[in-house]
Amino acid sequence: MTAHEGLDPAQSGLGDMDIEAFRRHGHAVIDWIADYLGTIDDRPVLSPLAPGEVRDALPATPPVEPEPFRRLMADLDRVILPGITHWNHPSFHAYFAITGAGPGILAETLTAALNVNGMLWRTSPSATELEQVVGDWLRQLLGMAPAWSGLLTEGASTSTLLALAAARERTDLDVRQRGLAGRPDLPPLRVYTSEQAHSSVEKAAIALGLGRDGVRTIAVDDRYRLRPDALAAAIEEDVRFGFRPVAIVATVGTTATTSVDPLQAMADVRDRAVTELGHPIWLHVDGAYGAALAICEEHRWVLDGIERADSLVVNPHKWLFTPIDCSVLLLRDTQALSTAFSLVPDYLATDDGEVTDLMDLTVQLGRRFRALKLWMTLRYFGAEGLRRRLREHVRQAARVAAWVERHPALELVVRPEMSTVVFRLRADDAEVAAAADRAADTAADTAADAAADRAAALAAADERSRRVLRWLDEDGRILLSGTVLDGRHVLRLALGNLRTTDDHLERACAAIDEAVAAVPPR
Amino acid sequence: MTAHEGLDPAQSGLGDMDIEAFRRHGHAVIDWIADYLGTIDDRPVLSPLAPGEVRDALPATPPVEPEPFRRLMADLDRVILPGITHWNHPSFHAYFAITGAGPGILAETLTAALNVNGMLWRTSPSATELEQVVGDWLRQLLGMAPAWSGLLTEGASTSTLLALAAARERTDLDVRQRGLAGRPDLPPLRVYTSEQAHSSVEKAAIALGLGRDGVRTIAVDDRYRLRPDALAAAIEEDVRFGFRPVAIVATVGTTATTSVDPLQAMADVRDRAVTELGHPIWLHVDGAYGAALAICEEHRWVLDGIERADSLVVNPHKWLFTPIDCSVLLLRDTQALSTAFSLVPDYLATDDGEVTDLMDLTVQLGRRFRALKLWMTLRYFGAEGLRRRLREHVRQAARVAAWVERHPALELVVRPEMSTVVFRLRADDAEVAAAADRAADTAADTAADAAADRAAALAAADERSRRVLRWLDEDGRILLSGTVLDGRHVLRLALGNLRTTDDHLERACAAIDEAVAAVPPR
Predict the structure, then answer these.
(1) Of chain A residues 289-308, which have a CB less than 8 A from chain B?
(2) What are the phi and psi torsion angles at A259 (to 5°)?
């Protein structure tokens, strides 16, 4: 093949891909995706590659000359696809199960072609106003008051960072101007969140200069929900020792178990503390995954108390079928964000008058036109269509949970209220019971031995649980993830992909069954 | 029309858009884009809409029932497109001119369809390894040493925030754990950057708890480059007053004039300060726009000294034809980032061994597969193809600059070294000269009058400059942007779109000519 064989007309020149080449390659890409999604079921969910295999299959040096587009597509199949863990697969049940659905995929294509940067209103009124409109639509779907308004960001970590930056500014300690370091006038600042909260809270605290010590984690109850009494006690103790409470972060749908923190009771604690201390404490709600469920009337309880909060993050790229990345930060008062971050250099000054320039609300200046995909997704499915689909995932989770309950080797950790099933392997019952008996009935030194036996039995169950997970990884039919709860290893099976049917639930149960049988207790 | 007319088969059910509907709509979207890009030249560059027009054209409440996809596409034409400022337009010369080129648009489609989250290596080895590979390819293209490695982020503001967070951690003040507030042991921290630096440096300082006071801006020379002597003096003074220098930010291609800070001399100042103070000072380089030019051997001087820096941000979505968003943060030591941000909760723990989990390096956990579009863009154009295109934009800028120099009413502010031409309206020469004469030749009180006259003449020229810009906005043929330099309003004409030809340069010169004629001096 000569250097220019298969190249597009403009490719060796100075311009962009020419229009007819774009049309031809574009149709090929659409067909590739249709075929991919149509056959995705046949692929192993988790990439089977070993570390370095993708890298080693690619040239170590950058290409010097232009390459034909079809060679790029061939390498997509040959090199990239084997290294993909298929998040859009109906048997992807790890972390939170998501869908990059059709309307959003096509909207992303349009976003890339328009290639607008919505930093200022004038740099695309549609980008700013559509972002405001879809934020408001989502607010209405979640049953929230008109005072709230929305903002799109890259992800929940970024949304939470922005919310906590607003909380920090709300302290009236003039952090924007004077910072936090080298100020003997400042007390150490604290953010409160449950021990089940997402790591993004701690990362935001690191970034914002509060440090890991600036996050105090609060104990949870037997359903993994933050304990308001423990929160009140922690704040009281901290204030006594000179800390300044800045924010409380509640979670609606924790990562491990989808538990829902009690917003009303937390807001009560907050209100009492504010009255006593005489300064504001921000209440942020991390509903990245779980808040979406509030679009269904019968599940709206998950946001009970939200009107008393200051901010809420919900990620349409989690459970509203929008391709990654799309996070919505809803705030009761966006002024708090612009107070922290508005900076208008001369090269961005306008005389457009009373418009919203979204750059004023964020650290990041440049803004992708993310609103387009959320708008197309909401319209394509419609509110009722979204509700039907969320209810289906809740139903699927309940069905899997019922199967777990019937399974002799498995036990539910919590009854699922959303679309994630958390369960674990029973420790060998006879062994544990025998250990417990010995502990109860015998002398102290024997009891200690028995307790050690019991711990060993539980550790063996946990080790088996990890091996089950590895067996499933290698099997490839389904992908689960695990975590640790109360010191025990647990398995998580998440629902949320729009292509997941009852057949896929059968597949999942069969695979878990086989795994448990293939990995006997030691 | 009945409710279900025009709906796709699966749309009213529980699933995703069905495969054949995706194929059909996808082909329509590709054709829409081909037609859009093929006729983009005929559109006004700046959206002519008034504030609120897009919002008012959309329903105030979210759609209840699913809508046919073609109705979404009809609204794209009817509502969204009039509110678009066309960044992909060959006559978009505002801010920095960019291109969302064909290969990147198609790659974004694939990214959305794969919908992977590359937070962990295992959640798609291709996402992590391709990101490492394209980062390394870019490093090589920029002529940098193998020790550097890259990381993709949302934008330069985010990249700079991460770099400065690493710098803050490098202080060994244990900011990650202990934060900055309420620590009498901490001095106030300082970051140094030129008064021409991007606002993202100040925003990062706000976010990181250094505050605006934590950024000391340094004077520039007559070509708007940071003055190393002023930097050295500022550090010396700050240290005397108890500040702790943490980082220096150089700019390669400032926003206003594309000036290039002297990296070597700044590194010299840094090294001397480090020797004296005995603690590290991070050198970050903001090359978001300008660093790309270093892929051309004859322009590599723009990064002269980069080996002495600690981090560099370059945005392929600026001058490497990749759709928004794609920023690359290159670091000599990524360990500094993971020291700041690595947090592995139980639900993300793996036993994958020695792999890189990119979530460890950033605040944001979830990660889009941005590497795919950069990979396809680099391969489609090839290194030589990219160089040809950058050189073309430099040539175009020189051509416009020569035209400005010949124009009786205009004057160049600086000779362009990259692809942006900065110029201004001459103040009415006779008036200014007369004012200067009076100032030189007469008694003090008359001289004061004359100085006031001169200032009035310059103010009149600036006001005219702003009116010229508004005239061009309304005319719609081209889009420029303005800024303020040395107290004078200046105009910026940026090149960088792959569809911009010499005909478009003629169009730009003609439009400016007409604008200047239509907006006479007052």
Answers:
(1) none
(2) -70, 160
Cis amide bond preceding A325, omega within 30: yes
Place of tokens 């019971």: A433
The number of beta carbons lying within 10 Å of the beta carbon of residue A398 is: 16
Q: Measure in Å the smallest separation between the Cα of B113 and chain A Cα atoms.
A: 6
Q: Contact, B243 vs B188, CB < 8 A? A: yes
B483 and A256 in contact by Cβ < 8 A?
A: no
What is the structure's pLDDT at B53? 98
Report the residue of B69, B153, B324 to disrupt the A interface, i.e. the one with the largest count of A CBs within 10 Å: B324
pLDDT-derived band of residue A352, with 50, 70 and 90 as boundaries?
A: confident
- B319 interface with A at CB cutoff 8 Å: no
pLDDT tens for each residue of A373-432: 999 999 999 999 999 999 999 999 999 999 999 999 999 999 999 999 999 999 875 566
- The SS3 call for residue A22 is helix
Q: Is the pLDDT of residue A433 over 70?
A: no
Predicted pLDDT of residue B521? 85
What is the ipTM, given to two decimal places? 0.96
Is A205 in Cβ contact with B343 (below 8 Å)? no
Q: What is the pLDDT of residues A82-107, one digit of tens each?
A: 999 999 999 999 999 999 999 999 99
State the pLDDT at residue B473. 97
Cβ contact B423:B411 at 8 Å: yes
Going by C-beta distance under 8 Å and a sequence separation of 6 or more, which residues neighbour residue A327? A152, A153, A154, A155, A156, A158, A159, A288, A313, A314, A315, A316, A317
Q: Which residues contact A283 (CB under 8 A, 6 or more apart)?
A: A247, A248, A250, A263, A266, A267, A270, A308, A309, A310, A311
Q: In Å, how far is B101's CA from the nearest CA of chain A?
A: 6
Nearest to A17 among B49, B101, B132 (CB): B101
Cβ pair B178:A53 closer than 8 A? no
Q: Which residue of A has its CA nearest to B210?
A: A179
Query: Which chain B residues have a beta carbon less than 8 Å from that of A127?
Result: 83-84
CA of B416 vs chain A CAs: smallest distance (Å) = 17
Report the alpha-carbon angle B149-B152-B158, nearest 5: 110
How confident is the model over B251-280, as pLDDT tens digits? 999 999 999 999 999 999 999 999 999 999
Give whole-number Cα distances, A321 to A87, A239, A315, A316, A416, in Å.
12, 43, 10, 6, 21
Q: Is the peptide bond before B271 cis (omega within 30 degrees of 0)?
A: no
What is the per-residue pLDDT across B148-165, written as a single tens digit (0 to 9) for each?
999 999 999 999 999 999
